[in-house]
Amino acid sequence: MMQTELDLFNPQDPLQPQWVGNQAVLLPGFALPQVQALLPVLREVVAQAPFRHMVTPGGLKMAVGLTNCGALGWVSDRQGYRYSPVDPLSNQSWPVLPEVLLELANRAAALAGFNNFQADACLINCYRPGNRLSLHQDRDERDFTQPIVSVSLGLPAVFLFGGHTRKEPTQRIGLRHGDVLVWGGEDRLRYHGVLPLKPGAHPLLGNLRINLTLRKAG
Ligand code: SIN
Ligand code: FE2
Q1: Residue 25 to residue 145: CA distance in whole angstroms
Q2: How far is the CA of 13 from the centre of ligand 1 (A)?
Q3: N vs C: which end of the chain shows fewer Cβ within 10 Å?
Q4: Is the pTM of this model over 0.90?
Q5: Which of the listed residues 187, 194, 205 should we mutate to test ligand 1's pocket, taking the one with most ligand atoms within 8 A of CB?
Q6: What is the distance in A from the centroid of ligand 2 to the CA of 192?
């Protein structure tokens, strides 16, 4: 029987955790109870540190809009990628990492087996229809024993979860509003990316997808 038929006859409970690696888990809808608290807090963060299109070291302007909150924020420019304690746009500290987000990320990390997650950085990505994120590894952080916790809001996207080399095949993981994905341990350095966002209208976020990735960077 083909895989698609199996799925039809054995639908998985959509709210059950789905392990996508030995130390990587999708938590469908895990953030939904916090969304109403999260959105106004995120609006404040973005008012203080607006989304911007950073330039890669190679000189290309990134299509996805980026900002950060937390003690450290991920930045890219002609000099390279790094974590910075200040927002280069304002020369001020990044906005504080909201408690509601930290608490959510800690609970998600613990479910994935990471009991001592100490996020000090949250990269916020804003995708519009057509925007994609090419395959990359998250390796600008210091401590790879700490996981990445990703929270998706707004329009759904297809997340590509690959292997430890760029060439390995990728799994396609649907990420919807409220989903949380955690990857760490042996899966921490897996290549990942996002397929071009399909147009759509999300009731809360319109034609946007917002992704928050919490990390321990320093
Ligand atoms: C990232 O890899 O930084 C973001 C992933 C995502 O948008 O789901
Ligand atoms: Fe990433």
Answers
A1: 16
A2: 25
A3: N
A4: yes
A5: 194
A6: 6
The length of the chain, given as a count of residues:
218
pLDDT, tens digit, for every residue of 164-182? 999 999 999 999 999 999 9
CA proximity to 25, closest of 195, 186, 207, 205: 186
pLDDT attached to residue 10: 53
With a 6 Å cutoff on the Cβ, whether 125 touches ligand 1 is yes
Mutate to test the pocket of ligand 1, among 211, 212, 214 (most ligand atoms within 8 A of CB): 211
C-alpha closest to that of 147 among 155, 157, 138, 156: 138
CB 66 within 8 A of CB 125: yes
- Show the domains of the chain with their CATH numbers: 3-215 (2.60.120.590)
Closest CA to 98 of 88, 87, 106: 106
- How far apart, in whole angstroms, are the C-alpha atoms of residue 114 and residue 143? 13
Q: Which ligand 1 atom lies nearest to the CA of residue 127?
A: 7
Strand partners, 125: 66, 211
Mean pLDDT of 43-47: 98
Nearest to 175 by CA among 44, 27, 67: 27
What amino acid is encoded at 130 in this protein? G
* Ligand 1 contacts CB of residue 121 (under 6 A): no
Specify the 3-state DSSP secondary structure of 103: helix
The dihedral over CA atoms of 186, 188, 194, 195, expressed in degrees to the nearest 10, equals: -20
